[in-house]
């Protein structure tokens, strides 16, 4: 980006519009399953999807990419074919994660994809099965099937019953829908094992079928409607149309009936993105920016130990006290960032996609202060640390613009969000909890945006 643009001013929203924006009543959003506090997750460029919360924790502790594959979907609710109940789920290439808050010791369970696939393909049982009777093989009385050899070794070392489930077939030959080759396979309740003798001696000798991908493509018909075809009978091929009007032609649009409704910064698949994708992508970018800044200065940097959403007052306690709705905060006691999911969702709905992101960047500013010991300095007043955090958020926003990720209007959304959160005119600046007036907060943000993070250290006692 040209240096001259470094000092481009925010496109200030008129005072009349600002007044109209101030502290609108937050409307509730659809309920969302409550994930336990954990690391913030990861945005996968390969599939333009994010894993976070309890699902990310499960993914990282249960084999990661090799065992689960990439995430294919956002988190969403789906009725289980097993018991007819509705659960929060996320599809991965080789599994479907289900969130079960009613079972805290096993909060994430896997859908019975192997059983579903087996019943669909082989309602009378697969032909020409051969029980494995090699030394060390075992018979499972629950299903009457045997498990032995390479498959038993893999089952034992990759989660066993909890991850794979019981064997529901013996070994047999099956053609792969991926490469058209025939492999020795065995079906389990939650997986299908494939034996690859050409990879003998490597950790890839046994691979898992991409049951999650097969199930996802079969169930989510909206993602299959983008194939070329005359959908409205006017003779115009589907690929040359943009039915949902999101600017992505229906040919490459994975969801041609649904708007790409957050923004086009994070992916161009054409499907509605959720707060999960937005916040995880932003959190990773903010964290990477500050890690690089600290590294350049030769200072140790500690990312957040906890990055957690909540949905109601007192949902859980932090080292700084119970969480509160309509809030986001950094807690130095546990080095965690917490946010009310519905509060950030309302900011997105009412202001725009950069509004919840700038709140997140502000709280990361407090984490930076925690890293530097600023929050432990009794000489700082609250309004100084709050405006310094605004300044840090502005510095990161310049970095995001330099990356080419900002859309027209994003900086206005940041200004609107900060304006909404400014103190009332008669709130004493010296009181604990003071954040500064709306104008002061926007000016602090502008300082960081214009001059970078070093200028933010002007907010000193």
Word description of this protein:
With 461 residues, the chain is an alpha+beta fold. 33% of the residues lie in helices and 14% in strands. The protein has helices at 15-21, 53-61, 64-68, 113-121, 149-157, 160-164, 211-219, 275-297, 341-350, 354-372, 382-402, 410-420, 438-451, and strands at residues 42-44, 49-51, 76-79, 86-91, 96-99, 108-110, 138-140, 145-147, 172-175, 182-187, 192-195, 206-208, 306-310, 317-318, 321-322, 328-331, 336-340. A hairpin with a 6-residue loop joins β9 and β10 (182-187). α10 (354-372) packs across α11 (382-402) and α10 (354-372) packs across α12 (410-420). The chain is elongated. Residues 1-38, 221-231 and 262-266 have low confidence and may be disordered.
What's the helix and strand layout?
Elements: H1 15-21, E1 42-44, E2 49-51, H2 53-61, H3 64-68, E3 76-79, E4 86-91, E5 96-99, E6 108-110, H4 113-121, E7 138-140, E8 145-147, H5 149-157, H6 160-164, E9 172-175, E10 182-187, E11 192-195, E12 206-208, H7 211-219, H8 275-297, E13 306-310, E14 317-318, E15 321-322, E16 328-331, E17 336-340, H9 341-350, H10 354-372, H11 382-402, H12 410-420, H13 438-451
Parallel strand pairs: 13-17
Antiparallel strand pairs: 1-2, 3-4, 4-5, 5-6, 7-8, 9-10, 10-11, 11-12, 14-15, 16-17
